[in-house]
Amino acid sequence: MNLRHVLAVQPGQPASDGAGVRLNRVIGGPGIERFDPFLMLDEFASDDPDDYIAGFPPHPHRGFETITYMLEGRMRHEDHLGNVGLLQSGDVQWMTAARGIIHSEMPEQEQGTMRGFQLWLNLPAQDKLGEPGYRDIPASAIPRLKTAAGIEAVVIAGLFDDGEVQQPGAVHKPHTEPQLFDLRMPAGSRLAPRLADGHRVMLYVYEGELEIAGAKGQPIKAGRLVRLSDLGELQLESNTGASLLLIAGKPLGEPIVQYGPFVMNTREEIEQALRDFRDGALA
Ligand code: FE
After folding, report:
1. CATH code 3.90.1170.30 for 6-268
2. Which has more pLDDT, 209 or 283?
3. Cα 68 to ligand 1 centroid, rounded to whole Å
């Protein structure tokens, strides 16, 4: 059997963003390369309000999508289109910035734990200046299943298929065909999720320890990202239990020029985005 092999196992890097939110930048920071079609993955996890209370006051985005997944806590989103949404434990917000969205993301709690993820998914060149969109997906609308091995899968995007159960996720996207699953593996469980050849696959372990077939003797600890090769099967095992995000998608293979929250294909397009933002014409 042809197994996907581990290209790299890496920790995230502490970062500060917004008005001073402390987070763990898993991919996309300086020195932490992107993983086409994914531009960035941030984890925020703190029970100290000083780490999150400042939030993300109004700021722009252009050229990609942001996917926010709350494990615990309350965050309020407001944007220039008039959308208002309250993200609570288990909810997902899927925002397509496309040609431009200006929004704020502010915690709606003054104490307690705030925990979750934000993933940036690139848009193909043809859609970068398309219509912006926004979707709140409450936890109750996200398919959740339990495999025969007792693994709980939250199927946020794409098709989950372990050879026995098939479950389409809450979101389907063309072009990059993203898969985004939150997998909770009990001790002693195994999973072989079906993945498309040629799609990039990464795993982020956020609790417990994970073993990957073909990479024996090297359990992946919590707080580590695993980048996998593009072809073959993936077999996951956890001896002691693990919670992880599985993130996969079809690479776009297009040039990327990024300036903060603007991600385009050329420098000229970035300069245009900056002009549009300055002139109030971004969104
Ligand atoms: Fe934002």
Report:
1. no
2. 209
3. 9
pLDDT reported for residue 1: 75
- How many helices (H) does the chain have, and how many strands (E)? 1, 25
Domain boundary assignment for the chain? 6-268
Query: For residue range 152-211, what is the model confidence (pLDDT) as tens digits?
Result: 999 999 999 999 999 999 999 999 999 999 999 999 999 999 999 999 999 999 999 999
User: 58, 104 in Cβ contact below 8 A?
Assistant: yes
Distance from Cα 45 to the centre of ligand 1, integer Å: 17
* Angle (CA) 98 179 67, round 5°: 40
Tokens of 271: 């300069």
CA of 104 to the centre of ligand 1 (A): 7
CA-based R_g, the chain, Å: 18
